Automatic annotation (TrEMBL):
Keyword Cytoplasm: no
Pfam families cross-referenced by the UniProt entry: YfhO (PF09586)
Stated name of the protein: ABC transporter, permease protein
Keyword Chloroplast attributed: no
Regions that span the bilayer: 20-41, 86-107, 113-133, 164-185, 197-221, 233-257, 299-317, 329-352, 358-377, 389-406, 418-437, 444-467, 845-863
Length: 874
């Protein structure tokens, strides 16, 4: 069978070699030119890293590179958020056939890797669409087939979201899935459908869900149109789709169980109308080069070219579509349009999970539907009906002009005159082509070439506006921001591992490149920004003072206390400036960066009684929760924190008033920062913090604070990072004067900020006791091992490893129950005496997924061998 398959592929390539090359290279060359116009090319000073590509995808792909080179397990990583099911991360961010190509790049060249992967995926989308159009619409001239494939690969949705590289795989498989459905109705084997579905679901389950739903509706339309001839065709479709879906459980099932077990919830329907959408949106977003935003309050990106728009309408006037098809495609289009406006339908397409920015993520399906209809319309295009096509083009000129003159000073302020004029120019060109064809001024092959050229120019023009929209909206980061710190940070990371002598500790950078640096530099960190995260452990971290609010997309290390540093095993800090934390000493320096070691940091575990399970948790009192947890683990009853009220002694560009415990800081000139000088008494042997807690988190977006004794200090986002801004430690009574700098909003409201003092004698006493009972885990891949001796009264090992049902715990090679502390940290019972401990992680559901993959792919292999079209034709 495989020999025949390769023979067929080889024959197809030989027959279609030239047009296939054009289908691949036209979008590739266009994208190279568009990026070059922004100063982005291999080795350029400006990188392709915009938006999440900088903070997430560059780091995630770098970590995957570490996996491929044997430096990290593909199942679990200790490198972010305390620890994470890495296989679940792969299923969303790193699945598919393209990602392993990062192995050909060093992590220092990851911006170039993402550049090449982006180009490759967009070019492959054009290639896949061409294969679809060429087989399903063979009557079309090659030039028109290339025009459709080019405009598909460069549609607005693809380019406006091009920084989200893991989504681009879906656009490769969408036309192949639909091709597989058409092949099924043509009586051919369902191999293309199975392989396309399988690769789609494995590459990205999220977009796989959307395309799976759309393709099912598409199949129903085809089935309704052919039900008399293909009454039983639904059987092979369902068998193929289900076998592909169950085979894809090798990726989907572990991901699903991870989301279910770790606190992910569905969005509740709270409204009926989607935000910011208006009645003219479909017209506005079908104009050339219209980019609003991919942040909040955007409207759908649906542009796929003006010529497809013309012929999509034309298709409904011709017999190339049957009545059943016209009704079916109209209803499918109407469903998609209704989903743009009706929130419950919008949520259905998003898997009942409301997106965080990058809204209407299924809108590319509307674009593809327009493309399919356009292909039907183009098949019916003849010289005799060219005036009719020209009339539709003129009608679009009128509609766009009506919209422009009604709204040019209204709601759609992001549409500039140039975009209206370009839309008119391209529509006039197409109208001229139609008339020239009808009047025999030019032969059809010339019309085909001119149409392909104009469609390519139009798509390029639109792409220019999309990429410049990203530049204005998010900015393409400078390469130096990614590469320059590496030469200093990497040696310090390696030094920290050398100093740890194989025992696993954690490290955090106080001057990070991004919150996900630990993925890239292969060290164990606390912070993380990811859609795939352990929400249970993040919630627990939030209660302990780390900022991981709401859905915990962000879990931040910055601005917590020394108590949490040591409890969570943060033994090392990298910083450009001195780290003024008690017990931290400088141990190395490289360039601008210094490495500091915390002598009181615990490893990943500690021997204790089970008293921590009886702690009374107090919401909104993270210092109280810290105290109770450390006391329970150490068997002590210490008071760690006291507070005092600082005196405001100087104000610059600020008016401060306090009422009912809320301090309002209002800038005199909102374009300049507010500077406030405070004075406070710090008792001897204290680590001091200035507590900054906003009255309303939503009101402080984009507001930063810097707290320092003599200037400098680390600037922190008030909304994103913790509330305890370090003032340093003091071994004698001190009258301290410090500065608070607020930037961003002209007015900031905070809970009247106190100074928090950590009693260092109590802290030292507790952690000396805890270090005597530490469990020095050594980590390799997905396993952690230690040898310990449990003393009388010690019954449990408490770890700061996030609890996950994928963990198995072995004591002297015998499996014991994995327990949890408040669903967030892994704990387990160990009897008295000396024991060997092993923790092993394997994603829950993966074994079942592997079995399903083998069974379903094998079943399909035998099914398609026996498949005969006669069995399903009447």
């Amino acid at each position: 069978m495989m020999q025949k398959l390769f023979h067929n592929v080889k024959h197809y390539l030989q027959q279609n070699k030239i047009p296939l090359l054009f289908a691949f290279f036209i979008p590739l060359i266009v994208m190279v030119g568009l990026y070059a116009s922004l100063g982005i090319y291999p080795g350029s000073s400006r990188s392709i890293l915009a938006s999440d590509a900088f903070s997430q995808f560059s780091n995630f792909h770098a970590s995957f590179n570490n996996v491929l080179k044997g430096d990290q397990s593909p199942f679990y990583t200790f490198n972010a958020g305390l620890g994470l099911n890495y296989y679940a991360l792969i299923s969303y961010y790193l699945g598919g056939l393209f990602t392993p190509l990062v192995v050909f790049f060093n992590n220092s060249h990851m911006p170039d890797a993402l550049y090449f992967l982006t180009l490759l995926k967009i070019a492959c989308a054009g290639l896949a669409c061409f294969v679809f159009v060429r087989e399903v619409f063979p009557k079309l001239r090659t030039t028109l087939q290339l025009g459709l494939s080019t405009t598909y690969s460069l549609m607005s949705f693809t380019l406006a979201q091009s920084e989200l590289i893991m989504w681009l795989d879906a656009f490769v498989y969408l036309p192949l899935v639909i091709l597989g459905i058409h092949r099924l109705f043509a009586g051919k084997k369902p191999t293309v459908l199975f392989v396309s579905y399988l690769l789609l679901f494995i590459s990205n389950y999220y977009f796989g869900f959307m395309i799976g739903l759309f393709s099912f509706f598409y199949f129903l339309i085809c089935y309704a149109n052919h039900w008399k001839e293909h009454k039983k065709i639904i059987i092979p479709y369902l068998i193929t789709a289900l076998l592909a879906g169950f085979a894809a459980m090798i990726m989907i099932l572990p991901m699903f169980l991870d989301l279910r077990n770790n606190g992910e919830t569905l969005t509740q329907i709270a409204k009926w109308k989607t935000d910011a959408t208006g009645i003219w949106d479909l017209i506005a977003k079908n104009m050339v080069g219209v980019y609003d935003t991919t942040k909040y309050n955007s409207i759908p990106f649906i542009y796929i070219g003006l010529l497809p728009l013309i012929f999509a309408v034309f298709a409904f006037f011709k017999k190339t579509l049957t009545i059943v098809q016209k009704v079916g495609f109209f209803l499918l289009g109407a469903l998609l349009v209704a989903s743009f406006y009706i929130e419950p339908l919008n949520l259905v397409w998003h898997g009942f999970h409301s997106p965080y920015m990058f809204l209407f993520r299924y809108s590319f399906l509307f674009s593809f539907l327009i493309l399919v209809l356009a292909a039907y319309g183009l098949e019916a295009w003849t010289k005799e009906n060219s005036f009719q096509v020209a009339g539709i083009s003129i009608a679009w000129i009128f509609i766009f002009s009506l919209f422009w003159f009604i709204h040019k000073n209204g709601t759609y302020v992001y549409i500039q005159p140039i975009q209206y004029y370009l839309t008119m120019i391209f529509l006039c060109f197409y109208t001229l082509f139609f008339i020239c064809y009808q009047r025999k001024i030019l032969p059809f092959h010339w019309i085909g070439f001119l149409t392909l050229f104009t469609m390519t120019v139009e798509a390029t023009t639109n792409g220019y506006f999309m990429l410049n929209g990203i530049l204005d909206d998010w900015n393409y980061a400078s390469r130096s921001l990614y590469t320059e710190p590496r030469k200093d940070i990497l040696p310090l990371v390696e030094k920290s591992k050398e100093l740890s002598h194989g025992v696993k500790y954690r490290l955090e950078d106080l001057d990070p490149i991004s919150v996900n640096d630990s993925f890239n530099f292969n060290y164990s960190g606390v912070g993380m920004f990811s859609s795939i995260r352990n929400r249970n452990s993040s919630s627990l971290m939030n209660q302990l003072g780390f900022r991981a609010r709401g859905t915990a997309l962000n879990a931040r290390y910055e601005n917590n206390t020394l108590l949490m540093d040591s409890l969570l095993g943060v033994r090392y800090n990298i910083s450009k400036s001195p780290v003024t934390k008690f017990g931290f000493k400088e141990v190395d320096k490289k360039g601008d960066y210094r490495l500091f070691e915390n002598q009181y940091a615990l490893p990943l575990g500690v021997k204790t009684s089970n008293a921590y399970q009886d702690i009374k948790w107090v919401d909104n009192d993270n210092l109280g929760d810290q105290k109770n947890l450390v006391n329970a683990l150490s068997g002590q009853n210490n008071i760690y924190y006291t507070s005092s009220r600082p005196k405001l002694v100087e104000e610059e560009n600020s008016i401060v008033r306090t009422e009912k415990g809320i301090a309002t800081f209002k800038a005199i000139d909102s374009s300049k920062p507010q500077n406030l000088i405070y004075e406070v008494f710090i008792p001897a042997w204290s680590q001091a913090y200035f507590s900054i807690f906003p009255e309303n988190f939503g009101a402080v977006s984009g507001t930063s604070a810097t707290v320092s004794k003599v200037g400098g200090g680390h600037k922190s986002d008030i909304k994103m990072t913790g509330q305890y801004y370090n003032l340093g430690y003091f071994d004698k009574n001190t009258k301290l004067r410090f500065r608070l700098t607020l930037e961003g909003k002209g007015e900031v409201k905070l809970v009247s900020p106190p100074v928090i003092n950590l009693n260092l004698k109590a802290y030292e006493k507790a952690f000396k006791t805890l270090k005597e009972n530490e469990v020095p885990f050594k980590v390799k891949g997905r396993k952690a091992e230690a040898t310990i001796t449990m003393e009388k009264g010690q019954t449990n090992v408490f770890t700061t490893i996030p609890f996950d049902k994928g963990w198995s715990v072995y004591v002297d090679d015998k499996k014991v129950e994995a327990q949890s502390f408040r669903d967030g940290f892994l704990t387990f019972s160990v009897p008295e005496g000396k024991h060997k401990i092993e923790l092993s992680f394997f994603p829950q559901g993966l074994k079942v997924g592997i079995v399903l993959f083998v069974l379903c792919t094998t079943a399909f292999f035998f099914y398609q061998r026996k498949y005969r079209k006669e069995r399903y034709l009447s």
